[in-house]
Amino acid sequence: SVGHLALAFLQGSFAFSGWNFLNYVTEELVDPRRQNLPCAIFISIPLVTFVYTFTNIAYFTAMSPQELLSSNAVAVTFGEKLLGYFSWVMPVSVALSTFGGINGYLFTSSRLCFSGAREGHLPSLLAMIHVKHCTPIPALL
Description:
Elements: H1 2-15, H2 18-24, H3 32-62, H4 65-70, H5 74-82, H6 89-118, H7 137-140
Helix pairs in contact: 2-3, 2-6, 5-6
C-alpha cells in the first residue's frame, strides 16, 4: 500500500541521514568547500548504500520469506541462523550502531544550539565554549 511504501522510505531515510550531520559542522571543518565536505559525502553515501544493499541481499539469501515476515528482529534471526554461538554479535552491532547515531546527533545538535546562541536567538549561556578544548559544553549539556 501507499502507506507501507511511505513508511519504508521514512525508515530508509534514517540510514542515510548521517550525511546531513555534516552540514551542521561545516564551520569546524578545515576548508569545507575544497575537499573535506564533498569527499565525506561522496564516500559515505555510496558506502552506506553498498552496506545496506548487501545486508538485505544476505537476509533474502539466508532466510525464507516466512522467516523474514515472522521475525521481530531480522538481524538477530539472521545471526541465530548463520552464526550459531556467535549470534550475540548481531544485537551488539545494532547497539553500537545506535550509539554511533546518537553520538552524531549529540555532536551536531549542540552546535545548532551554540550557533543559535551566538546569533542571539537562544540564551547567551549556550554560546560559551570550553577554554582549553573549544567545545560548547553548555550547549552540549
